[in-house]
Amino acid sequence: MIEMKVAGIALDAVSRNPVILLRDESERRALPIFISNEQARAIIVALENEDSVRPMTHDLFSNLLDDWELALDRVVIHSLKDNTFYATMTIKQGEVTKELDSRPSDAISIALRMGAPIWVMEEVVADASIPVDREADEAEKEAFRDFVSNLSPSDFAQKGRSSNQ
Question: How far is it, in rounded angstroms, from Cα 88 to Cα 100?
Answer without folding.
Answer: 5
